[in-house]
Each structure stands twice: as structure tokens, then as C-alpha cells.
Design brief:
Elements (H helix, E strand, L loop, with lengths): L1 H9 L9 H19 L30 H7 L1 H7 L2 H30 L2 H4 E2 L4 H13 L7 E2 L4 H29 L9 E3 L3 E6 L2 E10 L5 E15 L5 E8 L17 E6 L11 H6 L4 E10 L5 E9 L3 E3 L1 E3 L3 E3 L4 E3 L7 E3 L8 H27 L10 H10 L1
Main location: membrane
Organism: Cyclopterus lumpus (Lumpsucker)
Protein name: G protein-activated inward rectifier potassium channel 3
Length: about 400
């Protein structure tokens, strides 16, 4: 019955016949979605979802049912040419010149043919092929000297002027697009790397999530800064299911430590406090979470071109190692500091890392500090109380004095 309902529901969007296995899969997906509507963790039994951002920084997103997509891309033709692959860029480059040569070659041949004097108005031009060669020589400024326009035909002179203008426009557009494509800062990301794993460990007595970022070039990344977001499905209080809810992860924006000096590899630190989305997550919860994804972003300006680049990566819950710490990569030598990238991705386990959440750890520390404070106050009070009451002193006065202390 459930499979039949699913088949009727999806019959409007499926082009071909629906297989029984596909029907059962859709029914199972619908059942999982229904369970997720009651509880945010109702989908934990499903297989891990696809990454939203790949390890190489590519976003796993496709666009469908876009209205007037071609028209919108043509309206922004320059950006389209910069973004397309090189093979299509070469096709556009070749076709633009061929079409302009053919168009003006046909125009010259038509002008001479209409007036019926191929030899008077256009010298050495007795066929369409000769007109095409003249068009090519005019636009590329080759000028072999055999074909030319005479002053007897002002219309042909105007065509030559127009072709020179069109040729300059095509040259400027193609050269600009090629240079912009070559200078794209996207390739700079090939020499910016993130660690394969993120780690959770204690730092300065606080539970922190850390990952490492490095620059493989000696040229600097100007104004480099890092950001991070947590992507996870969530059900709102009103019952609305959000497939990917974005929650910001503070990596030091308030204090300015999100801006890094990326000469040697830097470990980015997120302190798990009461404002962190990981505040109530312990080790077991993290290891069993199949839908959590941490997207990390590094932004900065390329020193050579002053163009802004953005490098991205992500960590699933299975790639976040609880109770681990990164190996050192920076070593001091006699006359310099040496970075050994063979240790860049390596981690080692810290046995005494607490497995509880940061919230529970903070509560434990608060209880211990409260007990210590209570014992200290009692000790001070006992020291201020005289071991023997002074003769003739009212006991009520002693009690009042003790309370004041």
C-alpha cells in the first residue's frame, strides 16, 4: 500500500516505468523522512549522506529546472567564457574569427558582384575565395599587397573600417577572457592544503576542535583568514525539516585570531564553549553521528595578482578524531626554521582526554571549584572564632559575630 502511494506520488515526474526496487527505495526514503519529522536523530540509522563540500573544495550541488538558463548565461557572456573549460574556450576563439572573416568576405564579394565590376572596385578579387582572403588579411593586418580596395567604392572602404573595429573588439574580448582565465586564483588552491582529519582535545584546560592548514608556496597569502560552518539536518520547533542547517563555528572572530600568518602550517582552534554547536556533544554521540559535516574555509589575496581566493574542505564525523593531537611540523634548525610536511596529516592519541561533552566537563569543574571555595570559607571562619568564649560574653553576640564574619 505504501509503495503504491509512492508510485502515484512520483508518477508525474518519472519519465519511464518505475522498477519495483526503485519503488521500495522511495518508500523507505519517505518512511525515514517521516521518522525524522518527529525527532532530529530519527535518521541516524540511514547510511551516511553525501558530502556537501568535497575534500578538494568542490561543492556537490547540481542545478535543475532553471528557467531561461541559457539566456541568463549569455547575458553575462564574459563570466561564462571565463568559467567554461579550455576546450570550449578554444572553440569560441576559433569560431569568432572564422565567422567574422566569412561575414566580411561575403560582404566584399557581394559589394563587387552587385556593382558588376570585380576588378575595378576591388583589385585582384575575382572570386569569393579571393574576397575571403582579403577579409582575413584586412583583419589580421597581414597585407600581402595583391588585393586592395580602390577609392572608386566608398561602400567597400566603409566595410574595411567596420571590419577593423570589429576585429579590435574580438581581439580585446578574447585576450581579456584568456588572461582572466589564466590568472584565476582557483589554481592557487592547489598549493593550499587542509589536514585529512580534525581533532578534539584539551588545550589550556578547555575542550577544543582543531584542524590544520598549510601553504606549500613561499609566496604569502595576504589577509588570510579562516571560517567554519556546521552543516546538519534539523527539525524546527514548528516541525519544519531543514535538510542542511548552517551554524557558524567561532574560530576567533571576536578576538581576531581567525586572521592567520600562513608562512608555516597553522592549527585552527575552535573552543567548544556554551556558544558552540558541539557544546553538548560527547565522544559517543560524535562517533555515531552520520549526518554532521564541518565545512572549513580559508580566504585571502594572492600576493602575485592581489586577487581573492577561497580554499574549502570539509570533515565528516568519521574524520573528526576525539582525543587526538597533531604532530609538530615546525622544527628549529641552526640558521632557519624547517617545516616537515611528512608530519602535516599525522596525529597521536592523548589517553587522558575526557570522553564527556564540554557541557559536562564545565559542570564538573564548577562543582569542584564550588567545593574548594566552600571548604576554604569554612576554614577561614573557624580560624576567626575563638576556641574559648570570653567570660561574660553573651552567646547571642558570638553568634552574631560569626554570621558577620
Amino acid at each position: 500500500m505504501g509503495a503504491a502511494r509512492v508510485k502515484r506520488r512520483f508518477s508525474a515526474v518519472v519519465d519511464g516505468p518505475v522498477e519495483e526496487e526503485e519503488i521500495m527505495r522511495l518508500a523507505q526514503s519517505a518512511a525515514d523522512t517521516a521518522r525524522a519529522g518527529g525527532s532530529p536523530t530519527g535518521r541516524s540509522s540511514r547510511r551516511p549522506r553525501q558530502r556537501f563540500v568535497g575534500k578538494d573544495g568542490r561543492c556537490n550541488v547540481t542545478f535543475v529546472n532553471m528557467s531561461e538558463r541559457g539566456q541568463r548565461y549569455l547575458n553575462d557572456l564574459f563570466t561564462t567564457c571565463v568559467d567554461i573549460r579550455w576546450r570550449w574556450m578554444l572553440v569560441i576563439f576559433t569560431l569568432s574569427f572564422l565567422l567574422s572573416w566569412l561575414l566580411f568576405g561575403f560582404a566584399f564579394w557581394l559589394i563587387a558582384t552587385v556593382h558588376g565590376d570585380l576588378s575595378i572596385r576591388l583589385t585582384s578579387m575575382n572570386s569569393f575565395m579571393a574576397a575571403f582572403l582579403f577579409s582575413l588579411e584586412t583583419q589580421t593586418s597581414i597585407g600581402y599587397g595583391f588585393r586592395s580596395v580602390t577609392e572608386e567604392c566608398p561602400l567597400a572602404v566603409m566595410a574595411v573600417v567596420l571590419q577593423c573595429i570589429v576585429g579590435c573588439i574580438i581581439d580585446a574580448f578574447i585576450i581579456g577572457a584568456v588572461m582572466a582565465k589564466i590568472a584565476k586564483p582557483k589554481k592557487r588552491n592547489e598549493t593550499l592544503v587542509f589536514s585529512h582529519h580534525a581533532v578534539v582535545a584539551l588545550r589550556d584546560g578547555k575542550l577544543c576542535m582543531m584542524w590544520r592548514v598549510g601553504n606549500l608556496r613561499k609566496s604569502h597569502l595576504v589577509e588570510a583568514h579562516v571560517r567554519a560552518q556546521l552543516l546538519k539536518p534539523r527539525v524546527t520547533e514548528e516541525g519544519e525539516f531543514l535538510p542542511l542547517d548552517n551554524m557558524d563555528i567561532n574560530v576567533g572572530f571576536d578576538t581576531g585570531i581567525d586572521r592567520i600568518f600562513l608562512v608555516s602550517p597553522v592549527t585552527v582552534v575552535h573552543e567548544i564553549n556554551d556558544e558552540s554547536p558541539f557544546f553538548e556533544i560527547d565522544r559517543k554521540t560524535l562517533e555515531n553521528d552520520s549526518e554532521l559535516e564541518v565545512v572549513v574555509i580559508l580566504e585571502g589575496m594572492v600576493e602575485a595578482t592581489a586577487m581573492t581566493t577561497q580554499c574549502r574542505s570539509s570533515y565528516l564525523a568519521s574524520e573528526i578524531l576525539w582525543g587526538h593531537r597533531f604532530e609538530p611540523v615546525l622544527f628549529e634548525r641552526k640558521d632557519c626554521y624547517q617545516v616537515d610536511y611528512s608530519f602535516f596529516h599525522r596525529t597521536h592519541e592523548i589517553p587522558n582526554t575526557p570522553s564527556c561533552s564540554a557541557k559536562e566537563l564545565a559542570e564538573q569543574k564548577y562543582i569542584q571549584s564550588s567545593r574548594s571555595s566552600f571548604c576554604y570559607e569554612n576554614e577561614v571562619a573557624l580560624q576567626l572564632v575563638s576556641p574559648e568564649d570570653e567570660p561574660g560574653q553573651d552567646p547571642d553576640m558570638d553568634s552574631e559575630h560569626f554570621v558577620k564574619v
